[in-house]
UniProtKB/TrEMBL annotation:
Locations listed in the record: Cell membrane
Protein's recorded name: Maltose/maltodextrin transport system permease protein
Transmembrane segments: 29-49, 70-92, 134-155, 192-216, 228-252, 290-315, 400-422
InterPro entries in alphabetical order: MetI-like, MetI-like_sf
Function: Part of the ABC transporter complex MalEFGK involved in maltose/maltodextrin import. Probably responsible for the translocation of the substrate across the membrane.
Domain ABC transmembrane type-1: 193-421
Keyword set, alphabetical order: Cell membrane, Membrane, Sugar transport, Transmembrane, Transmembrane helix, Transport
Domain of life: Bacteria
């Protein structure tokens, strides 16, 4: 009795340097043909289109009007993604050849016909069958725009260099150094970035505080008409945010708004010792900042209220009863039972509230268009980074490359802070399998 043929995994991988040959060695003729045709197709595409696209990405053209640097940048970026996808398939081809050789040596038959391949995918590769298209779409829908933004940030794309009338050029880290060292941009960036941090911390903390406070109070046993209060608390969430913001923009009008015309005079009448002044909500940057922080607290708390209410209802009453028997006060119950449970469950959501307000364009733009005042560089007194980017790209003298650089900085900050907090809180720690 002769021994079954032993496949050499190393030989299979070496043959797969030319895609498909390793599969031929494993007698998977159909799979080998698929890999070989894919390799030949990519080679033809790269020779006909790809090489020129990469060359154009590097040079960004040589003749104004004739060459469109922006299109060259986009086409080159697409070619890079195609190249990355081809490299992944090439590596998969080598891995597959060696893996199948090992399986044959273990007595597992290799799929040779089309139906056997389909059956094998259905049995062992079903998750990959559904995840690969998602990753493929993510590559071109998410990664592609990010790469284009990255490339623009390293170019001189501004109102003086608009393709195709003018060619773009690579300027390296000049746009980033301008933000930190060029006096005009440095002053603006520091002012806008500082206010963005203050706005994010105060506005988000306020909406978290109101949401948690209302949920905890409404969840107490002695509170009556809980459903009624629940509906009232949800009203800010039910009304579209842009309508609420536009309404508040009118309510806080300095001369004709309800706050200055009716609310404050009413309190001054019934409480004359207060003598509350009439703030310049829309013309004083400091009062505008106060207004939008308060408004965001009102708009954002219902979501926190709903989420925390669900968490509170899941806390066993036995914990509170045991704490009562031990003589714990209401504050001690909250600090040792309620608060830890809320923050343990909802920490990732709370972080997303901070990152969301960090890029809350609607509130800043709709309330007062980032004004009043001017801190330089086209930014108003209440502009945050995201609204400043909008003005950099839509103003009379657009600065696309600077806007792209700021966009990348925002991404780094948001992603970095989120990863650090998520890791420290164990938000995505699913445990060992």
């Amino acid at each position: 009795m002769t021994d079954p043929k032993v496949q050499d995994p190393k030989k299979a991988r070496l043959l797969s340097i030319i895609p498909g040959l390793g599969q031929f060695y494993n007698q998977q003729i159909l799979k080998g043909i698929i890999f070989l045709i894919g390799f030949i197709g990519f080679a033809i595409e790269f020779i006909v289109f790809g090489f020129q696209a990469i060359h154009d990405l590097i040079t960004l053209g040589s003749q104004p009007v004739v060459d469109n640097s922006l299109f060259m940048m986009i086409e080159g970026t697409l070619q890079i993604l195609v190249l990355v996808f081809a490299v992944i398939l090439y590596i998969a081809n080598i891995y597959d050849a060696g893996n199948i050789a090992n399986q044959i040596n273990l007595g597992k038959p290799a799929s040779k016909t089309f139906m056997e391949m389909i059956k094998n995918i259905g049995d062992g590769g079903f998750p990959y069958l559904f995840s690969i298209p998602a990753y493929f779409l993510m590559l071109f829908i998410i990664v592609f725009p990010v790469l284009v933004t990255l490339f623009i940030a390293f170019s001189n794309y501004d109102f003086l260099h608009v393709p195709p009338a003018h060619l773009l050029h690579w300027v390296g880290f000049k746009n980033f150094t301008s933000l930190f060292f060029l006096s005009s941009y440095r002053k603006t960036f520091n002012a806008v970035f500082g206010w963005t941090i203050i706005w994010t911390l105060l506005a988000t903390t306020l909406q978290l505080f109101i949401g948690i406070f209302t949920a905890v109070v409404a969840n107490q046993d002695f509170i009556k008409f809980k459903r009624f209060f629940g509906v009232i608390f949800l009203l800010p969430w039910a009304i579209p945010a842009f309508i609420s913001i536009m309404s508040f923009s009118n309510i806080f009008n300095d001369s004709a708004g309800a706050i200055n015309v009716q609310v404050i005079p009413f309190f001054n009448k019934i409480l004359p010792f207060l003598h509350m002044p009439l703030p310049s909500w829309k013309t004083d940057p400091n009062w505008t900042k106060v207004a939008i922080i308060m408004i965001q607290g009102w708009l954002g708390f219902p979501y926190i209220y709903v989420m925390v209410t669900g968490i509170l209802q899941a806390i066993p009453n036995d914990l509170y009863e045991a704490a009562t028997l031990d003589g714990a006060t209401a504050i001690q119950k909250f600090s040792h039972i309620t608060a830890p449970t809320i923050f343990t469950v909802a920490a990732p959501i709370f972080i997303t509230q901070y990152t969301g307000n960090f890029n809350n364009f609607s509130m800043i733009y709709l309330f007062n268009d980032g004004g009043p005042g001017d801190v330089g560089g086209g930014a108003g007194g209440t502009d945050i980074l995201i609204s400043w980017i909008y003005k950099l790209t839509t103003g009379q003298s657009p600065q696309y490359s600077i806007a792209a650089a700021v966009t990348l900085l925002i991404s780094v900050i948001v992603i970095g802070v989120s990863l650090i907090v998520f890791k420290r809180t164990g938000a995505f720690d699913l445990g060992d399998d």
